Hints:
The structure holds two protein chains of two kinds. Chain A contains 18 helices and ten strands. By secondary structure, chain A is of the alpha+beta class. Chain B is mostly helical. In chain B, a hairpin with a 6-residue loop joins strand 1 (78-79) and strand 2. Chain A binds chain B through residues 337, 340-341, 344-346, 348-349, 352-353, 356-357, 432, 436, 439-440, 443-446, 461, 465, 468-469, 472, 475, 479, 482-483, 486-487, 489-491, 494, 507-508, and chain B through 11, 15-16, 18-19, 23, 26-27, 30, 138-139, 141-144, 146-147, 150, 153-154, 158, 165, 207, 210-211, 260-261, 264-265, 275-276, 279-280, 287, 291, 294-295, 298-299, 302.
Amino acid sequence: MENEKKAIVPACSSAADASDSFTFVQQDKKIHDQKFETKPVGYFKDAMIRFGKNKGSLVAAIILGLLMLFAIIYPLTSRYSVSFGDATYQYMQPKSSISTALHWEFWDGGENRSLNQAYYDYTANIPGAFIHDDVEGTKNASGKTYHDVRVDTYHAVGYKYKTIENDEYDKIVAYQEETGNQILYPLVNSADYADEYNTKYNTDGVIIYSSDANYDYLVQTTGSTKGAAQRDANGDYVHIYLVDASGNYIYKKAASDTSVRVRILYWNYFVYQNGFEPSFFFGSDYLGRDICVRLASGARLSLLLGFGVSLINLIIGVVYGAIEGYYGGVADLVMERIVEILNEVPFIITAVLFNIYLAKKVGAVGSLIFAFVLTGWIGVAGTVRMQFYRYKNSEYVLAARTLGASDSRLIFRHILPNAIGTIVTSTVLMVPSVIFSESSLSYLGIINLETGYQTSVGTMLSQGQSVLMSYPHVILFPAIFISLLMITFNMMGNGLRDALNPQLRGGDE
Amino acid sequence: MALYILKRLGLGLLTFVIIFVMIFVLVKMLPNPMVAIQPGTDNYAIEMARRKALGYDEPIMTQMWIFIKNAFQGDFGTSWHLYYNTPVNTIIAKQLPATMLINVYSILFSVPLGLGLGVLAALKKNKWPDQVISVGVMIFISVPSFVYAFILQYFFCFKLDWFPLRMLSMADAGGTYFSWPMFVSMLPAVFSLSFGTIAGLTRFTRAELTEVLTSDFMLLARSKGLTRTQATVRHAMRNAMVPILPSIIGEFIGILGGSYIIELIFSVPGIGATYINSINTRDYDVFLTLSMFYVAIGLVASIVIDLSYGFIDPRIVIGGGKD
Lengths: 509, 323
């Protein structure tokens, strides 16, 4: 003890009374075995703190969380199912109830159209078709009147002819009386409305369209406004409803012994059938299916696939890389050759062959998982192998070995934790690449993940691509979704990499 | 060095052969959807003769032998579905130029931009140009290339009408790939392919260059009196290019591979689109040959990248003893 005292106060050693002017701070206190007053910060907590400081990654993680919530929760709460489709409402514009209620002319299921007189009259005849009317219209250079209107694409479907069962007819009549929602409208006095695709002329030369139930008025056959509605003295349409001998409107006509032909207002008919008004948040596709719920369901499949495949690849990669790196020598040589060969097989070939051979046995999703797993683990295995080469000859491993630690203990408890940061990062970054490959393959039509209750983002993209020019909204939302998913996943992955491997970041800064 | 090259080539060849055998057997084991041609039809004699020559009725191993023998004479089988009774090598020879041209343009467009942006970001590190570029890189590297294709096709081809919706056919462009209308019609596809490459190259250049810029020899270069530009161009850039150049070379070889989706979207008459169509129509000879073509490109690219390190920077001894 005497020696130590001297060592502590060498600077004052010249003073004779040094031992009197200095006291030991911890003379009587035990300094060992004290409880920490702060909470211990482990590796992952430390990483999370670092991650939280990276604002960009944090925002990305939050957005990603929202996207995932959308994918998980939306299909459960939606009024539509994935397979629900009403082909009458194909390619409807996106419509949100907020925009509709607040009369924003945006995202309200509307479409700006410039209509000539004939189509203006046609559309004006349909109840609720205009969001934004333009009665006067403007004359263009050649003197024709055009009306710049905003049309509600849902309402604009208008009337439809439909053949329904007799008892269905009775139900609709009962429903009409109960709710006051008129579904059935008088039939049109045309020569033969069962003839769906031909335009008919009556004896006066007035067009009566037989296939389109919206033509229930007389149109002009001559002049510059050919095709526009004929007006009576009050300026109203001249309707040509079918009437019986006593002058009452006829609402049904027998189509067979058990069914009748009727003319319905489709909006009300939809409400009668489904109990809610037609409205698709992201619009509808070519079969009148809700894009929003399908996107959520496709995203759910993609995410499940991404996480599932990454997890499997993680396990295989860690085990394979650990064996390679730890045992080295011949094992490493042979296993590296296998890796090299597998690595050179283009993924698309694997996916195609697995799909052809396995899709019937394990399903399209199953065969896709096999294809992803076949080569996906190679990256992780490489990382793990490198870490093993770096650490397996370090002193602490030697110490553990001397103490009798088994191989598996050395591998999993002593060496592997060194690689945990890189492993987690590469696993997280694998998810978006799996999602990207999956959507590319289903976009190309090489794999088909679409079933009655399931779809995939890639399939939706390819369906949207075919109508890109006329209905861009079909592709818009899937494309935005997949882009956002990729961006946020990559940003979060990079943030995680920085947070989990602080030593890497030092070099990067 | 020579030994290493030989070893590398040998391993590459071995890999190629193993993959070839696997894919050949797997493809030939598939049920052939080819409708058996009826005797008496026009092409009966021709088709049967061709099938006999290709050994379609032999066991798989014999077929493989025939295929290999033919391949050495430049005959890679026949397309039966996409282009009826056309030799595969004719198809590839006809379609490779379109793919290559699109990708060469894309590389010519992206390499200068990528390098330039990367250098700018590295020099202005942590200032606003760097931050803007970093955000851009993150976005452009993540968004799938087909999304760019949709955007370009909708806004620039359809709405603004700057480019045609699809790549022109040979006949429309005057029978050559090098006419002005043809070039313009290729641009949307070129741009769609480029954005991701530019972003990747920018990120790579920035990372490499920042590392070099902070090294000791840069300090020395500055302290011996070089200006910042001189030091950057003469010392930093040259060192940073060591890992960047091989990746560009790899990219250049990879261009033969093309891009399936972009080719389909813009109707590029290239091998990428043909490959996808051969899969979807089960045109096995085309599928097999193109698959092996892609495998070969991958192998060659990886070998060349490996070897080019040594050529670019003589200090790097490839194939040297383990460190």
